[in-house]
Each structure stands twice: as C-alpha cells, then as structure tokens.
Design a protein that fits this description.
Length: about 120
C-alpha cells in the first residue's frame, strides 16, 4: 500500500512515517515498480506497536534502541523483554498517579454536586 494509505490506516502522517524510516524506527520499506514506498501488513503491525510505545511515553531514543535490537535478531529477546518490563513499570506507576488524580477530581465533583 502507498504511504498515504499506510498513514491513514495507522493514524500517523506520511511525514511521520518518513521520519520513522529516516531515524531507523522502521526498516527501509519495500518499493514498488515506480520506486514508491510499498507498505505491507507486517509494516502496519510494527507501526501499531510503535504507536503504543509512544502513546505510553516511551522516548524516541528508547524506541530506536528497541527497533535496533529487534533487527539484530532473536538473541536480543531478553534485552527487549527487559526494556518492555521497565517501560511497563513506568506506565503502571503513571496509571496509579492518574487513578489518584481521578479520585481527587471525583471527590471535588461530588462536593460541588452536594452544594449546588
């Protein structure tokens, strides 16, 4: 599929896809007979995972390191797992913070509802 189709399907801009390719987050995407990028389903699956990493706060640098390890092969699986476990701990801590913040908001809303 074209870069515009891939961008639309994964919710990123074509410029972001080109940037991700340039910095090594995604491998060199295949080209069609005209020389245009030709994204495959496995490219979109990887982009979906990258989007999840980014939306949960993983830095671009860490994402690049993860992508580098992934390209290096199966012998890096342990290091990739550790990276994801560390990131998961950060996400879980952020969720706990947000849960406390939500409780504070709920308390305040309840107080306003009781007085108005």
């Amino acid at each position: 599929m074209t870069i515009q189709e891939a961008a639309r399907r994964c919710g990123l801009s074509a410029d972001t896809l080109r940037y991700y390719e340039r910095i090594g987050l995604i491998h060199a995407v295949g080209r069609n007979g005209s020389g245009h990028r030709d994204y495959a389903e496995h490219d979109l699956e990887w982009l979906d995972f990258l989007t999840k990493l980014r939306s949960t706060g993983m830095s671009i640098a860490d994402m690049c390191r993860y992508a580098e390890l992934r390209r290096a092969g199966a012998h890096t699986a342990g290091e990739r797992r550790l990276m994801l476990e560390r990131h998961r701990e950060k996400v879980a801590a952020r969720i706990a913070e947000l849960t406390q913040d939500l409780s504070a908001l709920d308390y305040k809303i309840k107080a306003y509802r009781e007085t108005t």
